[in-house]
Amino acid sequence: MGLIAGWDPIKIGINPEIGHLGGLILTWHGVFTAIGIALGVWVAVKMAERVGFIEDVSYTVALVGVPAGIIGARALFVAENHSLFAGNLLDIFRINEGGISIYGALIGGVLGGLAYGVWQRLPIRAGLDAAAFGMILGQGIGRIGDIINGEHFAKTTDLPWAVVYTHANSLSFGRAPQHPAVAYEFLGDLLIFGLLFLFWRFYKRDGLVFFSYAFLYSIMRVGISALRLDDQVLWEFKMAQVIALVVIGISILGFAYCLRQAPGRRTAEAIVTPRPAAGGAEARR
Predict the structure, then answer these.
(1) Residue 274, pLDDT score
(2) Of the ranges 113-122, 154-163, 263-272, which one carries the lowest mean pLDDT score?
């Protein structure tokens, strides 16, 4: 397949490895993942403030959700690529060298934050709406590192925006011009991030923003994964597509459930603000 006459592919020649920090390899993937997590948490905290969460509570939820997301991201990647770790199980813990699943991160992070929210009796649906902003923004920023590193293989193409990786350390080095699939996802993430603000303004029930995010991202991921050369796990579907289809179904059910709830946003003010002491005036009434 040749490129359209007069067009050259976009060349990415950046070394995926920035350097070494002690015994760890510092990569662009890791750097942008960390930036994405930090900015995503900050945005989610700011959105949570709008429904009454104080910062301390929001950051505590993040302290539970972020590690749970990292564990989920690595666990799903290992499950998808278990043959890579058959010879050395310790490689499972070398997450700094790459190898995470975005869906594993989302599932782990949501479950971790959800468990903490239920335990603390926080307004779950309102919290999920705020978290959606941080999650999609963090995903998008993290994809910048994927674009630089060339870790994900995609179908070859002769489109003018085809990419080739020219640095020998890139996993895509020497491959034919391919679709910038992760760049497509990056742009889609930014579009969804913008749409969430529109939904936040017009939706009158908690939870609708979150399930809209989950639905839109999953629809996008089904299409983009069709361009990626990941292993097929069920008929013609890849793991990300299978999970996306499940999430689409859950999102539709969640959306329907939220529509059945009373209009109006539930705030966290009554839960996160200090309560009167047991011996105070309230107790003597």
Answers:
(1) 42
(2) 263-272
Half-sphere exposure in the Cβ direction for 180 (13 Å, CA): 23
Q: Measured over all CA atoms, what is the biggest interatomic distance in the chain, rounded to whole angstroms?
A: 85
Please tell me the pTM assigned to this model: 0.86
The sign one gets for the Cα dihedral 151, 155, 161, 165 is: positive
Every domain of the chain and the residues it spans: 16-262
Q: How much is the pLDDT for 23?
A: 72
Report whether pLDDT(84) > 90. no
- Strand, helix or coil for residue 165: strand
Looking at every residue in the chain, the average pLDDT score rounds to 86
Q: Which amino acid is at 281?
A: A
**Are the CB atoms for 271 and 123 separated by under 8 Å?**
yes
Across 114-253, the runs of DSSP E, i.e. the strands, are 163-165, 232-234, 237-238
Compute CA distances 161 → 7, 157, 178, 224, 230, whole Å: 9, 9, 9, 15, 21
Strands 163-165 and 10-12: parallel
- Measure the CA–CA gap between 196 and 190, rounded to whole angstroms: 10
C-alpha distances in Å from residue 121, one per residue of 63, 130, 166, 200: 17, 16, 52, 23
